[in-house]
Amino acid sequence: MIPRTTRAFHLPARSLLCCLAALHLSLTACQHTRGTATEDATSRGVVLEGPKAVLPEVQFDFGVLTSGAVIGHDFLVRNEGRAPLSIQKVSMTTPLLVTRMPREVAPGSEGKIHFELETTKLAGKFDGLIILFLNDVALRQAILTFTGHVIPPIELSPMPSFFVAGQRGHGGRGAIEIVNREPEPLHIEKVQHRTDRFTTQLETLKQGQRYRLNLTLRPDGPLGKNADTILVSTSSKKMPSLKIDANTYLYERVHTFPELVALGTLRANNVGEASLTLMIYQEGGNDFQLKLSTDIPGLSLKWERGPAGDRYQAKITLNAEKMLRGAIKGSIFVDTNDPQFPRLIVPIYGQIVEH
Hints:
Helices cover 10% and strands 55% of the residues. It is mainly β. The strands form six sheets. A five-stranded mixed β-sheet has the order 2-9-8-4-6, with no helix packed on it. A four-stranded antiparallel β-sheet has the order 1-3-7-5, with no helix packed on it. It is flat and about 90 Å long. The protein starts with 12 loop residues before the first helix and ends with a strand.
């Protein structure tokens, strides 16, 4: 019998080693947790002791402005930290400008950064971006937006250009509205252009505010495309003269698009990759028939009629082995079943150069 004072528990060697290993892991984990907690506390202490930037507003939309106006806005910056907040640098979209800004904001204080936008050279939507570079470790860069829409004092709607096409014998029409955005009434004093391919007519929709300029393409005018300029004289001091582009196209009942094929400059090793499309139309037709040919060796033509029977789509490709280096100049011949337009000739040109 073993006396009470000398009793002990005898464990096998393997079990004793497992217990010691478990104890070691537990102590290590405890030390690691304590170390991490200390580091987190230290990190939080740095943030709490440093500056803390707060921006109540980060987006500003000025709405719709007439070009030429200057718009300003203040962004507020608060420092809710325990150290001075430094605004180290500001980057912004042009033509935005900073006109007033504190270099430093004391703890518990706030500062205003004033931005101005000059809109004279702006048109349409403006998306301004502002970046503040700060000494706040939690917010190194603060991003602000300054947006809106800028319209001209006199607006040409839907665009400042005419695009009018029409068939010979029918002509074509287009219209542009002239809208006054200025407080003073607008008067149109004169409309002039140097061509007789089309005529213009001015309608008053609302005196001093809205006008409509109509363009009529002459049905008996010269065929083809043309680009002209219309000048509109106004009573506006900011925009005394309006320039409107007039792009017109008068075509025959049977016509091609484009009217000529420009291959451009092709490298010899890429000739076989070139591919262009030619469209042939018969306005009002339903049983249009044609055959294509060319006087350029090595030029391949494949065509297919549309489901309505009034048009064809032709694919133009080049045979690299048959095409010679140098200038390409010739024609595509379109022979049709239309008695008024039995043959159309489409010029084609380009150039093949070495590698």
